[in-house]
Amino acid sequence: MERDLEEGKEEKWKTISRLGLGEPYLAALNGQWDVMKRFFEKNENREQLYSQMTVEEDTAFHIAAYSEEKDLLQHLVKLLPASKLFEALKVKNKQGSNTFHEVATTDGVETAKFLVEKLQEVYEPDEGKLEELLTAKNTLGETPIYRAVAHGRTKMAKYLATQVGDLSSHFQRKDAMSILHIAVIGQHFDTAIWLLRNDKGLAKKKEQNGLTCLHLLAKMPHVFRSYSEFSHTNKLKKFLYYCLPSQFEDDDVSDDGNEAQIPSTISIKRYRAMWRAIAKGCRAIDKLWKIKRMHSSALELTKSLVEEDYTWKDFRCEVNYDKTISLMKVDATVDKDRGEQPYHPLLEAASNGIVEIFDKMIESYPQVIGYISKDEKNILHVAIGHRQRDIFRRVKKMEVIMKCRLASLIDENGNTLLHHVAEGKTYYGRESREQAAGPAFQLQEELRWLEDVRYIIPAHYIMHRNKNGKTADELFQEKHADLLKHAQKWIKETSQSCSTVSVLVATVVFAAAYTVPGGNDASGRPNFIDSPFFVLFTIMDVVSLAFSLTSVVMFLSILSSPFEYENFRISLPRKLLIGFTLLFFSVTTTMLSFAATIFLLLHFQKKAWTKTLIYTTAFFPVSMFALMQFPLYAAFNKLLHTITEKIKEVYPEKFLPPYLRTKELNKLS
């Protein structure tokens, strides 16, 4: 078999060599398009223009089409006799693609227009030559329009669509993958929106695995704004994100007949033009703008799919409501004959934390919140199991359905919501990814999940045993044993290292307290005692000593603490954060003391720019320390947020200061 293939390849190369097409192909490989043009201009055998040049059976027309070289294909077409045009464009390569298939994968709309006009000029419309070329399918069953959509060439797809009659024949290939599916998979959401406007029935189509396009979107959390929340270190990036417009051009994906319906003022056009110019010169802004446009188009597509795809609303909950809590192990009799079935789009969105899809589906059809999967899991099981706190918070607000139905459901394996927390799979939502600065904080996050879920389930469910005979607490300790070991080791090593640094800082500032900058006069009085910078030096030195010694105490208290699960819930992480904060301020005040000393010594001797450089250098270590430890302060920020929420629960909101009130109450005020 292999020998036959080798012989076939060898025969093809002999044919190519015999036709003398090695030279133009070599020129094409090297991007020497002028050499390729001159070869065919000099060669009188015009059949070589549509003869096979490569082992993939590409002709010169195929190569010119996907090269995207401007005017190359037009130049070759002009060399060809008019009577041979259709024959040349019809030739297929090994993938079954003709010239239009290759042109469709590029942005060469002008090239496509040229070919269409040339065909209309040579052949009568009733001959159907153009339609035959545009409806031809390759080995995968793809037409040129399908190929254009697959490659995200919206303008090309729009133009080719105007040249064919019935578009439905272009909407599906051999493997049942619809044209809308391929657009969503390729993340060409602008193209998908245009397709859905042309045929709303595409929203209900399923691919060979039974997935609709809404299913696919629910599996793509990275294309939504909720997944791309900017961390505390990316404030500038977040600011730029909000400044950037949602579109690149003025209504570049709208239908031709609807373009005038969307108002676009001159100021908006200028604003977009300004950002386009900036994006050309700054790759980071260009990348951020692409992300924002993707978020915007993905959200718009979600709205359309939720409205047009009714398949997700057709569901039945086949659940055994006779199940009660169990205080001992029972036989695990799970039905294995159900077969694999894709999760409902709502559960897929919940597992990936896509709040945009969740919100739109609940808004469109609130009853879907009660959907239960084949393995008897509801949205809370999925959100908790995948640690998606944003989804959990939204469902938690729906108190009636949550308390009566969702929180009390036991799945087919006998697991309550608390068991799903205890499973401890490596699922981390966006918030967990941001806050988990180390194993200790990861364990703290898991313990907080356990506490939050314990609060919403019926009290008697805490003692329930699943089909493996384990309560949620037993399962939690078993599954998180390794994480506990890592957390213990990490927090010990971190505390030891930081306590060493704190002692070093304390030693330095203690010694500095007895080294007066500028020296003393004959009477023993400091020379710079009347200078405000001397006072600053003294205060900062004392404060630094106090902070560093207090941080040592905090780190030593960690090392002497028991390292059990309960200690990692609040006590140990809080002590570590307080110790880090004190150490940070001790380093900061030490550098302030150092800067004050430098100022006292050089105030009358150096130029302004020299002093500025010295002060900047003095604060460089502090800046680096803050930057390196920012993940820990993200966790600290969360701790402050939790404290704030507790204060709001205790005190009536109207008595709180404005910055602690909700936006609604501030508006009323």
UniProtKB/TrEMBL annotation:
One GO CC annotation: membrane
Keywords: Membrane, Transmembrane, Transmembrane helix
Domain of life: Eukaryota
PGG domain segment(s): 489-600
SMART domains listed in its UniProt record: ANK
Transmembrane feature ranges: 533-556, 576-601, 613-636
Listed name of the protein: PGG domain-containing protein
Lineage, broadest ranks: Eukaryota, Viridiplantae, Streptophyta, Embryophyta, Tracheophyta
